[in-house]
Design brief:
This protein is α/β, with parallel strands linked by helices and 216 residues long. The chain is built from 8 helices and 7 strands. It is 30% helix and 29% strand.
C-alpha cells in the first residue's frame, strides 16, 4: 500500500454511519466518480488465498463485483466467470480491465436481488463487500435470490465487515448470528472465520468475517 493511499481520508459516502441503499443505482455509481476506498486494485487477500487453495472452480459469479478484480481472478484460473454490479461505471471499468488483460469475463449491470433473471446456475459465488451494505430487511431476500442461481452443492464465499470492527464509519458491522439467521433456508454455514477486509485508507485493513456457505 502506498503512503499516499494510507493517509487519504475515506470518501465522504464511506464515512456515513449507515449502509448504501442496495436498490439505489445512483448511490453505487456515484462511488466510482472518484476511487472508492474498497477498490484496492487487486483481489482481497482472503479471496486470493481461496483461489490458491483451489476453492474457486467451475462457473463463478462475482456478486457486487465493482471493477471486477475477483471475477478477473477467477477467469485467470480458467473458470467461466460472470460479474454483476449495480454501478454502471464500475462495470465499465471492469470490462476495460478484462479487455486490457485479455480475459473473457461476462460483466452485467444488475441488482443483486434480481440474480434469478440471469437464468443461470453457478458452482462458486464470491461476495467481497456486498453483504455488509445490505440492510437487515433485505438480507433474507438476497439469500433467496442467491440460492436460486447456485447449484446444489455450490459454495458461496463472503468477505464482510465484522462486529469486531470499532467505529461507525462505512458499512454495517455484521455478527455471526446475523449471518446464520440470514442463511438458514437452503444453505448450510460451513464456517465463519476472522479475517481482514483491505481498504486503501486503513493500513492493515478492517476486521472481517470470511464466510463459507454450502448450497443445500
Amino acid at each position: 500500500m502506498r503512503t499516499d493511499d494510507a493517509t487519504r481520508q475515506p470518501d465522504a459516502a464511506f464515512l456515513e454511519p449507515r449502509a448504501i441503499n442496495p436498490k439505489s443505482a445512483t448511490d453505487f455509481d456515484a462511488a466510482y466518480t472518484s476511487s472508492p476506498v474498497w477498490d484496492i486494485g487487486f483481489p482481497q487477500p482472503a479471496f486470493q488465498a481461496l483461489a490458491t487453495a483451489g476453492a474457486i472452480r467451475g462457473r463463478v459469479v462475482d456478486v457486487g463485483c465493482g471493477t471486477g478484480e475477483h471475477a478477473l481472478m477467477a477467469a485467470a484460473l480458467g473458470c467461466e466467470a460472470t460479474g454483476v454490479d449495480l454501478a454502471q461505471t464500475g462495470i465499465a471499468l471492469a470490462r476495460a480491465k478484462a479487455l486490457e488483460r485479455g480475459l473473457n469475463v461476462r460483466f452485467e449491470v444488475l441488482d443483486a436481488l434480481q440474480l434469478p433473471t440471469l437464468g443461470e446456475q453457478f458452482d462458486t459465488g464470491l461476495d467481497s463487500g456486498l453483504f455488509h451494505v445490505l440492510d437487515p430487511a433485505t438480507r433474507i431476500e438476497f439469500a433467496h435470490a442467491l440460492r436460486a442461481v447456485m447449484r446444489t452443492g455450490g459454495r458461496y464465499y463472503i468477505l464482510c465487515f465484522s462486529d469486531q470492527q470499532p467505529g461507525t464509519w462505512g458499512p454495517f458491522r455484521i455478527s455471526q448470528e446475523e449471518i446464520r439467521n440470514t442463511f438458514h433456508a437452503g444453505w448450510a454455514v460451513e464456517s465463519i472465520e476472522p479475517s481482514r477486509f483491505q481498504v486503501r485508507t486503513l493500513p492493515g485493513g478492517a476486521h472481517a468475517w470470511l464466510v463459507r456457505l454450502f448450497a443445500q
